[in-house]
Amino acid sequence: MHGFRYDRILAGTALALILAIPMVGLAQDPNKTAPAPTTASPPAASPVEQAAPPALAPAAAASPAEQVSTPTLAADPAAVTEQPAAVTEPAVAVTEQAAPVDPLASLDPADRVIAEKVRDLLAATSDKIFASKKERAAAEAFYQNRNFLPLWLDKGVENARATSAIARLKHADADGLEVSDYKTPNFAGLGSDALAEAELKLTQTVLTYARHVQSGRFAYTRVSRNIELPQAVPEPADILGTIADAADAGKALDAFSPQHAEYQKLKAMLAEVRANSGSKKSETPRHVETAIIANMERWRWYPRDLGKAHVVVNQPDFTLRVMHEGAQVWTTRIVIGKPSMPTPLLSETMKFITVNPTWHVPPSIVHNEYLPALAQDPTVLARMGLHVSYSGGGVSISQPPGPNNALGRIRFNFPNRFLVYQHDTPDKYYFAHEVRAYSHGCMRVQDPAKYAEVLLNIARPQEHWTAERITRMFGHAEQDLQLQPTPIWVHLTYQTAFVDNAGKLQTRRDVYNLDSRTLAAIRSARGVIEPTPERRREDMVASGSTPRRSAPAVRNGAMSQSMVYPTPGYARPFPSFFYR
Question: For residue 18, how many C-alpha atoms fall within 13 Å in the half-sphere facing its CB?
């Protein structure tokens, strides 16, 4: 009795579940059509079949919902058309709710924990790590592009890149830098927070070192305003990209230093001087080392590539050298500016040579020297062969071409804001002096015709120029010889210490006191290079090769703002009769 009642209860439960399945489907999807009532009753199930739980039904058998829905969909074509829209709606909803991709998901767990800390440090509003906003922005972009994967660590351990870079930084004195300026971390035994901070601090140190070794530790304006040089600071993004891609980070850092021969010879000589400094046989004074370092610092302000063909003026040595394809092809003596009117440091291209130049007296000389002289003696300038003209309330003074012209017979033009150039001179006796600092800033060349021959044969080799051919052009009419298509770089340098062609260290007196000022700036002003002050428009000089423009007039003791071409600085003093 009890067993029969139990079988009936199980059978009833199973039937209720079967009948409930279509209702569940309708509740979940109200768009489905309710099953049509059937006219025939299904055959009665045996008590054993009725008692079988639904989970034991064969997997291949269609669900009751599918059995009921199929005849309905077949009978109603409209339902077939509408059903895909109903089915795709939940899929769209799932896509919209998908979780964002984690950029750090691909990292190793040991790298990820540090990467997260690096990301947090870079996102912090206060930044005490990087020297400038530009460096921080570059570092942040660099780490973002690598999903904040550390540069100096592999799974929390110092990698070969870090070891090589740190070793180079600890030998920064090889380039005349101070090792103490480049703090390097010790990664051993640090937690994830400290490792992330050490990671960024080493990045900052590397950026600082690359900047210092390439372009110097301070702006050259701290030494003198009489300088116009590139002082090209490397871009932080370029530094980081170079180090990340390099097989040897230490060698990559070393490559940021100037690679031309003048710097590299001084670097090798610095190592030699230091190696011998402890020897009793050493004859090198200690100050020679304050000199090599100062000269290496100044070389960082110049272009990294001095040019296939270039002229190097060494002011303390009072010489000029012409270099072509790495070899010296000619040299001569020069006269430079006196200490009160020093020749500037600059890099420019020589664009043309003028034969039989007219001397347009610079406004500074007109105002400071010639106008006072004219007030004392109205005939003095005429006796010097100078022409005085008055226009618009101003005065201009010039000297026509000829054998007594202050510029001699040839002028070498490399337009620059200091209004200086190189030229011949009628006063040849100065070249016999050991110290030749007499001019107002321009450079007098001992053998200008030969100099012109050398330059023209570099720039225009098919024309076979000679000094004799150039001297035959001497007369009273200006003629310009263009150095095209190969303008030649002119570098006005200040080398109180240099290595000569025989490999011997040479030192010269500090005529303009630039060594002491350079070393003082190294000691007191190391840090981020300030941007070079923008030049005023009236100070800019056209870089084109236009030969001549009218000379400026002096009005009320001031230079006319209409000046667009450099007027020459001049070295020649008044003749002796002027002082009588």
Answer: 19
Phi first, then psi: give them for residue 572, nearest 5 degrees: -80, 125
pTM listed for this prediction:
0.75
DSSP lists the bridge partners of residue 558 as 555
In degrees and rounded to multiples of 5, residue 275 shows phi and psi of -65, -30
CB count in 10 Å sphere of residue 71:
12
* Residue-by-residue pLDDT tens, the chain, 580 positions: 444 454 554 555 555 555 554 444 444 444 444 444 444 444 444 443 444 444 433 444 444 444 434 434 344 444 444 444 444 455 544 455 666 788 888 899 999 999 999 999 999 866 789 988 999 999 999 999 999 999 999 999 999 999 999 999 999 999 999 999 999 999 999 999 999 999 999 999 999 999 999 999 999 999 999 999 999 999 999 999 999 999 999 999 999 999 999 999 999 999 999 999 876 555 667 789 979 999 999 999 999 999 999 999 999 999 999 999 999 999 999 999 999 999 999 999 999 999 999 999 888 888 888 889 888 998 888 888 899 988 888 889 999 999 889 999 999 999 999 999 999 999 999 999 999 999 999 999 999 999 999 999 999 999 999 999 999 999 999 999 999 888 899 999 999 999 999 999 999 999 999 999 999 999 986 554 554 444 443 333 333 333 333 333 333 333 222 222 333 444 444 443 332 2
Pairwise CA distance, residues 100 & 403, whole Å: 84
The two structure tokens encoding residue 336: 């430079």
